Sequence to fold (549 residues):
Amino acid sequence: MRNPLADKVVELKPSGIRKFFDIVHEMKDAISLGVGEPDFDTPWHIRDEGIYSLEQGRTIYTSNAGLKELRQEICNTLYRKQGLTYDPLTEVLITVGGSEAIDMGLRAVINPGDEVLIPQPSYVSYEPCAILAGATPVIINLKAENEFRLTAAELEEAITDKTKILILPFPNNPTGAIMERKDLEEIAEVILEHDIFVMSDEIYSELTYKGKHVSIAELPGMKERTILINGFSKAYAMTGWRLGYACGPAEIIKQMTKIHQFAIMCAPTTSQYAAIEALKNGDDDIAEMRTAYNQRRRFLMNAFQEMGLECFEPYGAFYVFPCIKEFGMTSDEFAGRFLEEEKVAVVPGTAFGDCGEGFLRISYAYSLEHLKEAVSRLERFVTKLRNGR
Amino acid sequence: MREELLAIIEKNSRIDLKELAIILGVQEIDVVNEMAALEAEGIICGYHTLINWEKTNIDKVTALIEVRVTPQRGHGFGNVAERIQRYPEVNSVYLISGGYDLMVILEGRSLREVSAFVSDKLSTLEQVLSTATHFILRKYKDHGTVLSQKKEDEREMITP
Fold:
């Protein structure tokens, strides 16, 4: 029989997180600091709207781009929060989570041989999506000394005449890094000078703990060349609803919508109705969850400080990214032993790119009680290592 | 800090001051001072514990009593509310808008004890026109806390 598989897919590296997932799965009694989703339930009034839409029998397709009312609410929200104006009819596409928007966006803009700039450590999907779209991924290794922000110099150095688009993943998973207005202004200059595009993945935009989130699309000349991606998973604790969106120039959104139409048809209808309620009446929920995350963030930063674990202070998402280089182990080894000996699962930084070596991703999407227990185990483990055992 | 502090200790009054300072991102001394101020201003009125009595062997009956009263010239409902709140078995007294005037929440050991209070003490007050007593059969959620079993964390251990 002939080989049934596509080389491009077979050659794709499996997600580094998958490997660790399998090990953790064997350990039934382990506790985890490894999740990338909120510990809160979706606020009840949002779930209720989803249920109500089912009761009403709204179980049919929506238009390909998504419910008009939802697109309108997204535009209202982006205007209210970011001062951005998008046309709900031509510049918004509702997708199956932010993940689909990443895929569709890259497929819509990439020609064979184009280079996609991917700052790492970052979410696991960018590189494979770029490869599947036919691009050559070019990795920018972010540095701890810059608090894992992307600098203009780093960007400048990575750009070639083949560079088509930069992926800008801030607030960042796994580092928790943010890009403030001045950081964005510096890279925007480089972007404009070299006439490249930006895919700004702002899925954690509501979870920032130092001033208001700034989108690169807010800067002069940038909206025209930016695909802004956001969604409901993190801000409203709606991961299982699978709903996100992309906003951008009409000509890009039009092509993304075309692929979306053939591949997906439309995002889940129930989720779209629930999302309208989330945008209309969910601000208080966001504030409440953000306050809780921030308390946990402070708790962890303090705990690391007390045990002398090096960690820059992250101001976004719900991750901290401590450095474990002092122990002379790889991230994989550290995470493996920590799991083995203390029964706590954390994700090795290398799951998010080679430059994550020497770091761990620790999620604080957990209750304070849970974090306390996990931190006390970490402290015990770290002490043991320092005592040379 | 005030609002966030109150929100935290309303849920967990036993949290220690050091931890409170850490999660609020302030100095411990500031928390101590703020708590003292809140107590002095009568904003913090006590540090209670939420108990699910159903799980103990101790019998408790809670009743909600709707009370219609005649307001008094110059005092409104204040006098009669004050009168009712003196009874130690009375847990709460609220002035209510709508079909009746005062909501009295009462705790007793038995139905008989509560009934006796209503018929002997409450109804016989001069200003009380009528009462309607509702016994609580089961508490599902109290003070914002669901009393039934806690939900397990069903998330995958590791997700990207």
About this structure: Chain B has two domains: 2-40, 53-138. The interface with chain A takes residues 4, 7-8, 19, 22-25, 153, 155-160 of chain B (CB under 8 Å).
